[in-house]
Amino acid sequence: MYARVYNRLVGWLCLAAAAVGWLFGHIGDYMHILPLESCILLGFGVLALLGARSRLRYTVAVALVLGIALFLWGVDGSFQSHLPGATAEPLECALRIIAGAWGVYTAVEDTLSWRRRRLTA
User: What element of type H or E holds 32?
Assistant: First the structure.
């Protein structure tokens, strides 16, 4: 239930960040989005929006995979900023970590609520 909302919100945010990355390359001094990151964000955005429009089991799976990927990308950017596609911008890493943790939480919460409904029925 919440995974659909998460997928839509994160999907549109990733698409917007990819567009900003290609058009301007940065958001002030807070976020510098490289072309490689724009491509990755575009892929995440399309995956999330397709996942939001699919069946509930796929929606939850997309939220879980997207959450894990964003979380690991944020942690990787915080500790290993020398790798391609992993920037050390604090705001960017914090947003990725928070969005990733939220995705994992919504996937687990939707799975547990589905199990509770199955047990009570």
Answer: strand 31-32
pTM score of the predicted model: 0.89
What's the token pair of residue 72?
């690991």
Instruction: Please give the distance of CA 76 from its chain centroid, rounded to a whole number.
Output: 14
What tokens appear for 92 in the block? 């960017």
13: tokens are 């945010």
pLDDT of 87 > 80? The answer is no
Beta bridge partners, 26, equal 32
- How far is residue 78's CA from residue 91's CA, in Å, rounded to a whole number? 10
Looking at residue 56, its pLDDT comes to 87
pLDDT of 118: 87
What is the C-alpha radius of gyration for the chain, rounded to an integer number of angstroms? 15
